[in-house]
Amino acid sequence: MMLIEALGSALLGLVLAGVAAHRLAHRLPTRSLVLATGTAGALFGAFVTHTALDPGNILLILLGAAVVSVASLSLLLRPSGRLRRSATA
Q1: How far is CA 7 from CA 13, 18, 33, 42, 67, in A?
Q2: Least enclosed by CB within 10 Å: which of 38, 48, 68, 73?
Q3: Within 13 Å of residue 15, how many CA atoms lie on the same side as its CB?
C-alpha cells in the first residue's frame, strides 16, 4: 500500500509540475527544476501526511501531496513584471 501511495504522489507531483511548467513557463526557471521540485514536494507531502494521519486513507495522503507540491512550486515563481513602488513609500 505504501508503494502505491508513493507512486501515486510522485505521479501527481509530476503532473502538477508539468501543468505549471506549461502554463507559467515565462515565470518559472528551467523545466527540469520545476519537474523535480513538483515531484519532490509531492513525495514529501505524502510522507508528512502519511505520518500525521491514518496510513490507510489514500485520498487524504494524495491531497496532502498535492498541497505541498503546489506550495513548493509556488516558491519558484518569479514576478510577472516590474515591481511598482509608490512615490510616497
Answers
A1: 10, 16, 19, 10, 16
A2: 48
A3: 9
Q: Distance between CA atoms of 22 and 49, rounded to whole angstroms? A: 28
And the C-alpha cell for 19? 501543468
**What is the structure's pLDDT at 82?**
65
Measure the CA–CA gap between 1 and 58, rounded to whole angstroms. Answer: 9
Cell of 30: 528551467
The grid cell for 62 is: 494524495
- pLDDT, residue 79, reads 83
Q: Which three cell numbers stand for residue 78?
A: 518569479
The pTM is what?
0.85
